[in-house]
Design goal:
Strand content: 15-25%
CATH topology: Sulfite Oxidase, Chain A, domain 2
Helix content: 25-40%
Radius of gyration: 27 Å
Largest sheet: 5 strands, mixed
Mean pLDDT: 84
Low-confidence stretches: none
Distance between the termini: 73 Å
Number of helices: 6
Number of domains: 1
CATH architecture: Alpha-Beta Complex
CATH superfamily: Oxidoreductase, molybdopterin-binding domain
Shape: globular
Number of strands: 10
Structural class: alpha+beta
Amino acid sequence: MDDEVKELTGLEMRRLSRRSFLWAGAGVAGSLSLLSLFNQKASDDGTGIKKVFRKAHETNEELAKLFVSGRNAPTFPAARAVEPRNNYHSITPEPDLATWQLTLGDAQNPDPEAIQKFTLADLKALPEVTLTTELKCVEGWSAIVTWTGCRFVDFARKYPPLPGTKYVSLRSEPEGFEDAWYYVGLDVESALHPQTLLAWGMNGEPLNAEHGAPLRLAIPTKYGIKNIKLITNITYATERPKDYWAEQGYDFYAGL
């Protein structure tokens, strides 16, 4: 009887060993497959970010659009406003405010005669709006700031894009600072949000060079990386435009 038990026990042990080996092999194969998937690079955006991370960004974008659409960012009493940090990591451009102009173009109409140019006085002829909102940086800090300017939606009503526009490209191209040029892209819905401002004032004073004089974007539904300073060019577009931080691996939407 003991010999039979030993034989049965041995057979069971061998079956268990084979089963364990098969499970271990499947686990290793699965791990290698996951590792291979993880190490795949994104092939469509040129950033080199891994596909799994890019997919996570895209999922976050869709969730943000779902929950942010139609929602306003919180507003605060002006007494709580402070001066935010200047995150400019290079020489701060100081444009000649007397000659500065904003250029507006439309990617659907490349005719040079269709390009429009505006002075700050032209923009100030639009309805003035003042909002006290929170500027949030991806580096982890935030500041409550009072912005004064015109709503982008009012600008777009007076100078409308052609039908089919899905995006807005904003660029900072100060003359003589080519190495410091900056650019962001926005989906048109975010650009036309009622709290998105083309701002020329901060905390009751005109913008200074450190904070984007003479014109910057104040968009409290986005992280600070979208709040472009010293805007020189705006272009309406049907295709997703270039975006500086999206090219570095961040998500394009950057919504809060």
